[in-house]
Every structure is written in C-alpha cells, then in structure tokens.
Design brief:
With 159 residues, the chain is mainly alpha-helical. It is globular. Helix 1 crosses helix 2 and helix 6 packs across helix 8. Pfam families: CMD.
C-alpha cells in the first residue's frame, strides 16, 4: 500500500510527522535515540541493523550506513551480514548481534538457554536491553517504511 504524499512533501517527514503527529513524532524520536544514545560498538550495531534491514527488505535501510566520528563500516560489510554464520569478518559480538537480530525478527520464541548463555558471555545486561530496543525500533520502522512504500520514495541525505 502506498500512502498519498502531498506534492512537495518529504515522504518520511509527512508520514512520521504530519499524518499522525501524536504517534509519529514520538516514533521518530525513538528512532533517532537509537542512533544518538547507543553505547554499542559500530560493528555490532550495524550487524544487527543491517540484518533487520535485510529481513524487512527496506531499500532505504539497506542503503544507509551509520557513521560515527567520520567512520562507517566497510563497503562489503553487508555481504558479511548476509553470511553472518560463516564470515571471518565478524568477531563474536558482531556475529551474535546479527544472530540475535535474525532470531528476534523471525523466531523470538526460539531464543533458548543455549543462545542466552552465549549472548551473556559477550554482552552485559545493559547492552542486551539496548540492542533489543534498537532491533525492535529497526524492525517496526523499517517494516513501516517498506509496507507503505516509503523506502522507495526516500533519498539518502548527502553530507
């Protein structure tokens, strides 16, 4: 389904800010907070974010690369995310972040004691909660963009 965007309006700004301002503005603030207040390393952050983008199929999210202090992940990082089980480009934390994102999105009932044992060996409880909130935000907002066709209308900002 495509949302009717008035002529001259930015699709994301319109849907998230004007169409449902009581919810959309709060949702946008949550989405921004995930990027502005994360304590996670860039590689595990992007491994989880890009795995959700792949699952959602959000074109905007797949093209986006988070930047921190002028640093982004390497260009072929998304290929490593696709192959998170076998890639040698990931350390344990990045591999677990991609795995957690995938399992959270596709089989959250299957997050068993064995998985949590591995996760807590590499992440603190604070980091796990932060990663979970981030994954949840990416899952819902990337799907919203994809379902409504906003991801095809949006243009990445030029910096």
């Amino acid at each position: 389904m495509n949302i009717d965007i008035p002529e001259g309006k930015d699709p994301i700004g319109y849907v998230w800010g004007e169409l449902v301002p009581g919810i959309g503005i709060s949702a946008a603030n949550l989405s921004l907070a995930v990027y502005q207040h994360t304590t996670l390393g860039l590689r595990e952050f992007e491994a989880a974010r890009l795995r959700i983008a792949q699952i959602n199929g959000c074109m905007f999210c797949l093209d986006w690369r988070t930047e921190r202090d002028g640093v982004k992940v390497e260009d072929d990082f998304i290929d490593a995310v696709t192959q998170w089980r076998t890639t040698d480009a990931f350390d344990d934390r990045a591999r677990l972040a991609a795995e957690y994102a995938e399992r959270y999105a596709l089989d959250h009932h299957g997050l068993d004691d064995e998985f949590w044992s591995r996760m807590t060996a590499h992440y603190s409880q604070v980091e796990i909660v932060e990663l979970t909130m981030s994954i949840g935000a990416w899952l819902v907002f990337g799907r919203l963009n994809r379902v409504f066709g906003l991801d095809a209308m949006c243009v990445l900002p030029k910096f």
